[in-house]
Amino acid sequence: MAEIFPVETRGIGKPDFSKEISSGQERAGLSLKYNQSLITLALLCTDEVAHPYDISWVKDLIPVGGSSHLYNVATGVTTPYTVPAGYTLNLIQQGFGANEDFEVLLFYNTLLVLMPSTTFVGGGYVYANMVVPYNTAALDPTAASSHPIDIVVKNKGRGPLRGG
Fold this sequence. Notes:
Number of strands: 11
Distance between the termini: 69 Å
Number of domains: 1
Oligomer: single chain
């Protein structure tokens, strides 16, 4: 017969995988700390659906010489996005492809601070699955003030821009 003795209970009585399973909440390879979050900005320009469309970031084609801001996927609000005082923003990854020549521009307090690419030739695609070298702390190291961040896609081609 086995000896019976009290054992100190630790945990909640079931396995806790919260530290190992993070897909869907975090980007692979990044662990968010307390009070950090990921913001997804998107834009899809298409004539495959009737506009206005139910999803905020799905827009009509960008006309020649035109531009469009990116949209916050969670809120549906267009950029500029205001980084509150006390916070910084890192651009983690970027990707865009289109049928026309295009540029992607990043503005900080209305100043152009990052042009991740030169004009991409129609049918080209820009993608960076790495930390892109942009952080608002470079211009405001103490995060003392709030700052608007705007990301704009410009059509530099000869026809309406389709892409995303």
